[in-house]
C-alpha cells in the first residue's frame, strides 16, 4: 500500500510538475481560451448546467444565444487542452451587464450520442433556441419542456444545417429557352 | 377602355344641357362592362410574406397610391378578394397555407407573383424555399425585382387590368402557358429628394 | 445599468420573474402543431371552458407570417404559443455557400425593415476575423446610414402600429416620412431596401455629391412631424386606453428570456449596446438612451417614437463630423480595385475577377460581433476554416428572443390587446425564421 501510495504520489507530483509548466487557465472550473477579445469557456456536457448557474449568480444575467455547429467538414480546429474535439459543438453566449462582457460556452457533443442537458431551468430564454438546435442539428436537450421542430414542418426528415444534408438546390429552368445539347 | 357607342345627339347637350340628351342610355357588350368593372375594383388579398410585403404596403400608401385603382382595401378574408399578390419567399411550411388561401378565393381570381423569390425561388435555391409559386398556384403576372419597387408592382397590376379587360386570362388558362413577365420599372420617378410640404 | 426600483417592475417572487420559469401553469401552451390541429378544443369549448383559436399565419395583424395558437376563455387569452417557421429560408445554410463578399446580400434579407444593421453585424464579424478595421470615413458613413435606417424602421413601426390600433392615417403619415428616407437610401446605395451597401472592409461606394443638403432637408421635414404624431396619438384618450397597462412585463422576466432592445428598455432597464459596448464611433456622439417606466405597450411606442428623435440628433452630428478619406480599406486582399482601373490595368482586372468569383480567404477562427438594431442586439457568429466561404454563419436575431416574451404578455389579455402586443413587440419574421 505504501508502494502504491508512493507511486500515486510520484505520478501526482509529475502531473503537478506538468501543470506548473503549462497551467490550464480556468474560469468557473472549466478551461478557458480567448478569441478576439471574448472569453470562451469549454465545459463538458455534464458541467454545462453547473457552469451556467455559477455564471448567472455572478452577474451573467442575459442569455443571448444558443446554437450548434457541425464540424464534420472542417479541416481541424483547436479546442481547449485536455478536451476531445467532437463532431458537434453547442455554443451558448451569455452577457454580463455589469462588466459589459460577453462570454461563450462551447460544449463538445459527440455524434454517437447528441444529447445535452437543457438550460431551460437556468435561462428560460433557451426554450426556442434549443428547439431550433434540435431542428437544425439533431442535438436533443434532456429535460426540455417541448422538444419539437420549430422552423421546419413537423414531419420533416433530416436536420438541415448538418454538413451531410445537401443544400437542396434544383437545376434552374429557363422558360422558352432552346433545349440544351 | 372598350369603345362604347354613345347614342344621342351631342349638339343637344351643348345647347340645352343635360335635358338635351334625347336618349340617355349607352350600350355596350355585357362582357366588356363586366370586365371593365372587375378591373377597376380589383381587391387584393393580403399575402405579404417578407421584404416584398413592405414594398407592397408602400404601393398602397400615399406616395404611390393604389387607391386610385380602387385597390387600397387589402381584404383580410380571401373570400372577399379577387387578386392574390404573393409578396415574398414561400417556405415549405407556408406552401400548404398558400394553396388553402388560394382555394378559398372565389372565381374569377388572379395571381401576381411579386418579386423573384415568389417567381422562381430568387436567390434562395435551397431546401427551404419553393422554387416559384407557380408550382402551387397558377400565376398571371410575374413582377421581377428584389424587391420590386412600388412602380414595378403597379406596372404588374396594370398588366393584370389589361388582361382582365381584354379577356386574355381565359385564353391563358386553356392554353396552359405561363403568365406574363413585366419589366422592372423602379426609379422611374426622379430620385431627387423632394421636400413634401 | 440600474433597474429602476419600482414596485410595478420588481417582483416580490422568491425568484424574480418567476412565471417565465414555470413548466406547469405556464402562459405557454406547449402542444405540438399536429395536436393543435386535431384538438377537440378547436371546434368546441372544453370542460374547463377554454377553446383553442388559431390566429395566422395569414392575418392582417400578425406582422408577417406569425401564427399564434391561443387558448381562449371567452374573450380572454389564457395560454398561447407562437408558431414560427413560415418564413424559414435556410439563410444560414445559404451563407455557407456564398463567399464573404456575397454574405451581406444574404443577411440583409433577414431583417428586411433594417437591412443595414444585418450587413453591419456581418461585416464587423468578418473584419474581426481578418484583423482589419474599416477606415474612419467608412465608419462614419456606416453610422450615418444605420441611424437613418433606425429612423425608417421606427417609422415603419409607427405606421403599422397605428394601423393595427385603427389609426389608419398614421399608416399614411409614417410611410410618407419613410419614403423620404428611402429616397436618400436610393441615392446613396442604389436601392430602397436590401441595400448590400455595408461590406467587409468599408462601404460599397462613397456618398454622392450634395448628400449633406439632401439629408438635412429630410431631417428638417421629419422633425416637426414627430410633434404632429405626438399631437395625434400620444395624448389621445383612445390611444392611451388601448396601450397603457397592456402587455406588461418586468425586467427580470425579460432578462431571463434574453430580450433586448426597446422591449427591455421599456421595463426600465437601461441597456443599449451603442452606449454600453460601443462600436463604430458611438463614443464620439451625444445621444440619450430612452427607458420606460411601466413595461407596457405605451412605453414601447413612446420609446420608439423618441428614438427617432435621438437618431435625428445622431445623424446631424454625423453630418458635421464626417471626415474625408477612403470609404473602404485599401487592402488589396479584401477590396476590389476601383472600376475605372479595370480598363487600364491587367492586374486590376485579375484582382477584380479573383475577388468576385473566388472571394477572399479569411484565416481560421471563430468570432462574434453585435450591433444595436431597432429590435435589440443583432449579432453575427462566424466560424471560418481558412477558405473563401464561411464554415458556419449564425445570426443572433433579436426578434427570435423577443417573441418568447409574448405568451407572458398575452396572458389574461383580450384579443384586441393581442393585436396591440404583437404590434409593439415589432417582430420581423425574416430574422426570426432565417
What is the strand and helix layout of this fold?
The complex is a heterotrimer of chains A (181), B (197) and C (434).
Chain A: H1 2-21, E1 26-27, E2 30-35, E3 38-41, H2 48-57, E4 62-70, E5 88-96, E6 101-109, E7 115-117, H3 126-137, E8 140-142
Parallel strand pairs in A: 3-6, 7-8
Antiparallel strand pairs in A: 1-2, 2-3, 4-5, 5-6
Chain B: H1 10-16, H2 30-40, E1 44-45, H3 51-60, E2 83-87, H4 95-104, E3 110-114, H5 116-120, E4 141-143, H6 150-166, H7 168-175, E5 180-181
Parallel strand pairs in B: 1-2, 2-3, 3-4, 4-5
Chain C: H1 33-38, E1 51-55, E2 67-73, E3 76-83, H2 91-97, H3 103-107, H4 115-130, H5 136-165, H6 168-189, E4 198-199, E5 202-203, H7 211-234, H8 237-243, H9 251-257, H10 262-265, H11 273-276, H12 297-321, H13 339-344, H14 346-358, E6 365-373, E7 376-384, E8 390-396, H15 398-402, H16 406-410, H17 415-425, H18 429-433
Antiparallel strand pairs in C: 1-2, 2-3, 4-5, 6-7, 7-8
Helix pairs in contact in C: 4-5, 5-6, 5-12, 5-17, 6-7, 7-12, 12-17
Task: Give a structural overview.
With 181 residues, chain A is of the alpha/beta class. In chain A, 23% of the residues lie in helices and 25% in strands. Chain A has a domain at 20-142: NADH:ubiquinone oxidoreductase Nqo5 subunit (Beta Polymerase, domain 2, 2-Layer Sandwich), CATH 3.30.460. In chain A, the strands form two sheets. Chain A has a six-stranded mixed sheet with strand order 1-2-3-6-5-4. In chain A, strands 7-8 form a two-stranded parallel sheet. In chain A, a hairpin with a 4-residue loop joins strand 5 and strand 6. Chain B is of the alpha/beta class and 197 residues long. Chain B is 35% helix and 9% strand. A five-stranded parallel sheet of chain B has the order 1-2-3-4-5. The two termini of chain B are 35 Å apart. The model of chain B is unreliable at 190-197 (pLDDT under 50). In chain C, strand 6 and strand 7 (376-384) form a beta hairpin. In chain C, helix 4 runs antiparallel to helix 5 (136-165), helix 5 runs antiparallel to helix 17 and helix 7 packs antiparallel against helix 12 (297-321). Chains in contact: A-B, A-C, B-C. The interface between A and B is small, with 13 and 10 residues.
Amino acid at each position: 500500500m505504501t508502494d502504491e501510495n508512493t507511486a500515486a504520489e510520484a505520478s501526482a507530483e509529475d502531473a503537478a510538475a506538468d501543470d506548473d509548466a503549462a497551467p490550464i487557465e480556468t474560469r468557473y472550473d472549466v478551461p478557458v481560451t480567448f478569441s478576439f477579445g471574448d472569453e470562451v469557456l469549454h465545459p463538458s456536457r455534464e458541467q454545462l448546467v453547473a457552469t451556467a448557474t455559477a455564471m448567472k449568480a455572478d452577474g451573467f444575467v442575459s442569455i443571448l444565444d444558443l446554437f450548434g455547429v457541425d464540424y464534420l467538414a472542417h479541416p481541424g480546429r483547436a479546442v481547449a487542452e485536455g478536451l476531445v474535439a467532437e463532431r458537434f459543438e453547442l455554443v451558448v453566449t451569455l452577457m454580463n451587464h455589469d462588466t459589459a462582457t460577453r462570454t461563450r460556452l462551447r460544449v463538445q457533443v459527440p455524434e454517437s450520442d447528441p444529447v445535452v442537458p437543457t438550460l431551460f431551468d437556468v435561462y428560460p430564454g433557451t426554450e426556442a433556441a434549443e428547439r431550433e438546435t434540435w431542428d437544425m442539428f439533431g442535438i436533443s436537450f434532456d429535460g426540455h419542456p417541448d422538444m419539437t421542430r420549430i422552423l421546419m414542418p413537423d414531419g420533416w426528415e433530416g436536420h438541415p444545417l448538418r454538413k451531410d444534408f445537401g443544400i437542396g438546390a434544383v437545376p434552374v429552368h429557363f422558360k422558352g429557352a432552346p433545349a440544351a445539347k | 377602355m372598350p369603345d362604347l357607342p354613345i347614342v344621342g345627339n351631342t349638339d343637344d347637350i351643348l345647347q340645352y344641357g343635360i335635358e338635351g340628351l334625347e336618349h340617355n342610355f349607352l350600350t355596350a357588350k355585357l362582357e366588356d362592362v363586366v370586365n371593365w368593372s372587375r378591373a377597376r375594383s380589383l381587391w387584393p388579398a393580403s399575402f405579404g410574406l417578407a421584404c416584398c410585403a413592405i414594398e407592397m404596403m408602400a404601393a398602397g400608401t400615399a406616395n404611390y397610391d393604389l387607391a386610385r385603382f380602387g385597390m387600397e382595401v387589402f381584404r383580410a378574408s380571401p373570400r372577399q378578394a379577387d387578386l392574390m399578390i404573393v409578396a415574398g419567399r414561400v417556405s415549405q411550411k407556408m406552401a400548404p397555407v398558400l394553396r388553402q388561401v388560394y382555394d378559398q378565393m372565389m372565381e374569377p381570381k388572379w395571381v401576381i407573383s411579386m418579386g423573384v423569390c415568389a417567381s422562381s425561388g430568387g436567390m434562395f435555391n435551397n431546401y427551404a424555399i419553393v422554387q416559384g409559386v407557380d408550382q402551387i398556384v397558377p400565376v398571371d403576372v410575374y413582377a421581377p425585382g428584389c424587391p420590386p419597387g412600388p412602380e414595378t408592382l403597379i406596372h404588374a397590376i396594370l398588366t393584370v387590368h389589361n388582361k382582365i379587360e381584354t379577356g386574355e386570362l381565359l385564353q391563358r388558362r386553356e392554353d396552359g402557358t405561363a403568365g406574363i413577365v413585366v419589366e422592372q420599372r423602379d426609379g422611374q420617378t426622379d430620385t431627387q429628394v423632394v421636400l413634401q410640404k | 445599468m440600474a433597474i429602476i426600483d419600482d414596485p410595478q417592475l420588481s417582483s416580490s417572487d422568491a425568484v424574480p420573474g418567476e412565471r417565465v420559469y414555470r413548466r406547469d401553469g405556464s402562459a405557454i401552451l406547449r402542444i405540438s402543431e399536429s395536436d393543435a390541429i386535431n384538438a377537440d378544443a378547436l371546434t368546441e369549448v372544453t370542460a374547463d371552458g377554454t377553446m383553442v383559436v388559431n390566429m395566422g399565419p395569414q392575418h392582417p395583424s400578425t406582422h408577417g407570417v406569425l401564427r399564434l395558437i391561443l387558448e381562449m376563455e371567452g374573450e380572454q387569452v389564457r395560454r398561447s404559443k407562437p408558431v414560427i417557421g413560415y418564413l424559414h429560408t435556410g439563410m444560414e445554410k445559404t451563407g455557407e455557400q456564398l463567399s464573404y463578399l456575397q454574405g451581406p446580400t444574404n443577411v440583409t434579407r433577414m431583417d428586411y425593415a433594417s437591412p443595414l444593421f444585418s450587413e453591419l453585424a456581418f461585416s464587423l464579424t468578418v473584419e474581426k476575423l481578418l484583423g482589419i478595421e474599416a477606415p474612419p470615413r467608412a465608419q462614419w458613413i456606416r453610422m450615418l446610414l444605420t441611424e437613418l435606417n433606425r429612423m425608417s424602421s421606427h417609422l415603419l413601426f409607427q405606421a403599422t402600429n397605428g394601423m393595427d390600433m385603427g389609426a389608419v392615417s398614421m399608416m399614411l403619415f409614417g410611410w410618407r416620412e419613410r419614403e423620404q428616407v428611402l429616397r436618400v437610401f436610393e441615392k446613396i446605395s442604389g436601392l430602397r431596401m436590401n441595400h448590400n451597401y455595408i461590406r467587409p472592409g468599408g462601404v460599397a461606394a462613397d456618398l454622392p455629391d450634395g448628400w449633406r443638403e439632401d439629408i438635412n432637408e429630410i431631417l428638417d421635414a421629419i422633425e416637426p412631424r414627430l410633434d404632429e404624431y405626438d399631437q395625434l396619438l400620444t395624448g389621445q384618450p383612445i390611444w392611451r386606453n388601448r396601450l397603457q397597462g397592456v402587455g406588461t412585463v418586468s425586467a427580470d422576466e425579460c432578462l431571463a428570456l434574453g430580450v433586448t432592445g426597446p422591449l427591455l428598455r421599456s421595463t426600465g432597464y437601461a441597456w443599449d449596446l451603442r452606449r454600453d459596448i460601443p462600436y463604430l464611433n458611438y463614443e464620439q456622439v451625444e445621444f440619450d438612451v430612452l427607458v420606460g417606466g411601466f413595461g407596457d405597450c405605451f412605453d414601447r411606442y413612446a420609446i420608439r417614437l423618441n428614438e427617432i428623435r435621438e437618431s435625428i440628433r445622431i445623424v446631424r452630428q454625423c453630418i458635421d463630423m464626417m471626415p474625408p478619406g477612403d470609404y473602404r480599406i485599401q487592402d488589396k486582399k479584401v477590396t476590389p480595385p476601383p472600376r475605372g482601373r479595370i480598363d487600364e490595368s491587367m492586374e486590376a482586372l485579375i484582382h477584380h475577377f479573383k475577388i468576385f468569383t473566388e472571394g477572399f480567404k479569411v484565416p481560421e477562427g471563430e468570432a462574434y460581433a453585435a450591433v444595436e438594431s431597432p429590435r435589440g442586439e443583432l449579432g453575427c457568429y462566424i466560424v471560418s476554416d481558412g477558405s473563401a466561404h464561411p464554415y458556419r454563419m449564425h445570426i443572433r436575431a433579436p426578434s427570435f428572443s423577443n417573441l418568447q416574451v409574448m405568451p407572458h404578455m398575452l396572458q389574461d389579455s383580450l384579443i384586441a390587446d393581442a393585436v396591440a402586443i404583437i404590434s409593439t413587440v415589432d417582430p420581423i419574421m425574416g430574422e426570426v425564421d432565417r
